[in-house]
């Protein structure tokens, strides 16, 4: 019987002890530098190894030491993600399915389970070329029981937007040593955005090329409306440059992305990437760091609701956040689903908030954790199944408590 994918981390960066099962929607909250990104990157590392295995197998010659190539690739990727400052007691592992597991210790030596060894052994003594890649990749999907493309959207996106015009030139002229100085997830993000940008020359053509009968036009309209509300404009890629097309009383005007607000720069490619993969209709797992960055509170609520639009039957999402507005919005969507399942009519609220049933979060598909002190703590209240209130906005409780004490002193006249 298939098991839920399970991640274990011991002594990696700020994380001292972490055990978690993956879910369709997972939220990691907690203070800065607590280890949220460490967990997110570990998930990215393990869930993208199927590509590394396939790339190692595709070679223009018969290689009797293919295991060494796999070890090299995974070790190199691990170093790019986490650096070489690894604790001597570091241990991480990921179980994909029954008997399909990968482990890595402090020496970055990769230990793969017998089922994976048996699978790679099928290709020993066989010359595989690029034309064999898709066939081998589909075989790897069955082995790892994971058909999803993993899309990592890192923090610090505004700087990449500011450098938009020269980013491709800078990045593709780096040698391997210079590229290794950039975090692997950021490199993957830059490469992905650079390839996708030209498709946005004409959003209408993008829709017509990608849309098929399985996409509900009303759903697509809702996605585009949410994008516009958050961006307060429409994205354009014209003559190799990125613009926001804004509308005011004087009509349309184009503003280069590098002159847009920091909030617009940060959120732009969260919106675009989710939109693109919804149109592409390829099963996807989005890993998004700090989607709330530089956004007004109401827009933070909107981006949380937009992300839930991506949670189709085949898609998953993992987010890291500091935002009580993100957590509060997701908790409300959990509660709305609970009430709907209990027989309450919430249709008027759904219409008022412009929400679809697919955006409501099932408790069985959702998990939330608070990362602090090097450990992972369940952020779900065991009684009501919602995100615990003290984690949603503990700072406000302290601020309001101090304000109440000041009011009390003034009311009592105690000078």
Give the number of helices: 17
Name the overall outline: globular
* Beta-strand percent range: 15-25%
Helix % is 40-55%
Structural class: alpha/beta
Mean pLDDT: 86
**pLDDT under 50 segments (min length 5)?**
none
CA-to-CA gap between the ends? 70 Å
Assembly classification? single chain
**Main β-sheet: number of strands, strand sense, barrel status?**
6 strands, mixed
Q: What's the total count of β strands? A: 14
Instruction: Give me the side-by-side strand order of the main sheet.
Output: 7-11-12-3-13-14
Radius of gyration: 23 Å
Question: How would you portray this structure in words?
Answer:
With 415 residues, the chain is α/β, with parallel strands linked by helices. Helix content is 47%, strand content 20%. The protein is built from 17 helices and 14 strands. The protein has helices spanning 36-47, 49-57, 66-82, 114-121, 133-144, 157-162, 164-172, 176-179, 184-196, 203-210, 217-231, 262-280, 297-309, 324-341, 347-353, 389-392, 394-412; strands at 6-12, 15-21, 25-29, 91-97, 100-105, 110-112, 149-153, 234-238, 241-248, 251-256, 284-289, 316-321, 366-372, 375-378. Strands 7-11-12-3-13-14 form a six-stranded mixed β-sheet, sandwiched between helices. Helix 13 links the parallel strand 11 (284-289) and strand 12. Helix 2 (49-57) runs antiparallel to helix 5. The termini are far apart. 36% of the residues are buried. The model has no long low-confidence stretch (mean pLDDT 86).
